[in-house]
């Protein structure tokens, strides 16, 4: 494959955009690539770069593209919405329709506020929890990523883990002194901390399915314990379902595991590929937000009509009978195929999957938390990433990211991917 145009664009971008990219993980630095792919267009589960190369896409714009790219119904809805005007900075009925779809899908959400990104959703949810409880301290978990708000970068996953950045310069110590980060899936540790400090804790925020240290499912009973200790101490439980919401089930991880949080953060899928975020929960909490309540939060483009229409149409498609069953079948086929391929080549690898979110770690440990994920052989991951790319398979360029299957992937695409992995594993084993 030739990458001349991507290389040329990256040189130009490096001059005028920090690191040549508008979000760090895209630069593909950690896998040793000297440039990312510049993308021209995408269709279904295929993505096409600026040099005319085509790839089967398992990044799906980092999760939103669950229907695949350019779904005809979403494209049609967007054209219609655009014809009415791109933004009004005033309420539209589309905001009510998306709010209705979200509250119907996720019963713990009685009211929802739209924002423009997952970062805004989690940042606002934390402010609400602090405002409502009158407490400052928050608990998060190592390797979970909740966007780039100052207080949430402590021990974060995703790009922070990929680039090995310890938190971030520019975040004053005093901003993070109220953030406690605990090991994911360690119920005993949570109990211990909550027994000692529960009355000071405003909230526990968690990715109920962690997708930013690779993919790590919640251990049996872990989410139940979080619910129990927060209820006991009067703290709020926040599920950050920006990635897993509408992904692992129509009602998200809370439907899958049967736990009802106080506040839920959403993003990605509910915008159908347009910039969006949302946070919602029980009426008593949400009525605390301005202008109804005292906790301030605002946004010029919040509830943007294009994002609302792409989101509404996406959720309509997801609601169709059999959607998640079919996605589960495809994802199981892929994950089983990759597992067998690694076993055949005697590659040390550990696999996690929840529905259409999956992770392959180059370690012989079962990966249950960030410390386990960090035992992965990152050089082997880089070689795997590059090998797969050469064979036309587009994966996230980091061990600490999840992979996503979409409704547009067919058995044929999946079998092509497994065959590519067999060849790459065989090469890595030599
Ligand atoms: C679980 C989770 N929360 C929050 C975010 C932040 O979302 P955004 O990148 O839209 O700000 C992300 C992704 O970046 C995420 O995966
Ligand atoms: N893991 C991140 C979000 O889910 C990846 C997106 C980004 O940071 O650019």
Question: Helices and strands in order, then pairings?
Answer:
Layout (H helix, E strand, L loop, with lengths): L3 H13 L22 E5 L2 E4 L4 E4 L14 H13 L8 H13 L5 E5 L2 H16 L3 E5 L17 H4 L10 H4 L2 E4 L4 H11 L3 E6 L15 H12 L2 E5 L11 H6 L5 E5 L9 E5 L1 H4 L18 H14 L4 H22 L5 E5 L2 E5 L8 H4 L4 H13 L2 E2 L8 E2 L6 H19 L1
Parallel strand pairs: 3-13, 5-6, 5-7, 7-8, 8-9
Antiparallel strand pairs: 1-2, 2-3, 4-10, 9-10, 11-12, 12-14
InterPro entries: 4pyrrol_synth_GluAld_NH2Trfase, Aminotrans_3, Aminotrans_3_PPA_site, PyrdxlP-dep_Trfase, PyrdxlP-dep_Trfase_major, PyrdxlP-dep_Trfase_small
Subunit structure: Homodimer.
Main location: cytoplasm
Entry keywords:
430 residues; binds ligand LHPZP3FS; four-stranded mixed beta sheet; alpha/beta; 14 strands; binds pyridoxal-5'-phosphate; seven-stranded mixed beta sheet; 39% helix; globular
How would you sum up this structure, described in words?
With 430 residues, the protein is of the alpha/beta class. The protein has 15 helices and 14 strands. The strands form 3 sheets. Strands 4-10-9-8-7-5-6 form a 7-stranded mixed β-sheet, sandwiched between helices. Helix 12 (323-344) packs parallel to helix 15. The mean pLDDT is 96. Ligand LHPZP3FS binds at residues 23, 25, 62, 145, 158-159, 212, 243, 401. Pathway: Porphyrin-containing compound metabolism; protoporphyrin-IX biosynthesis; 5-aminolevulinate from L-glutamyl-tRNA(Glu): step 2/2.
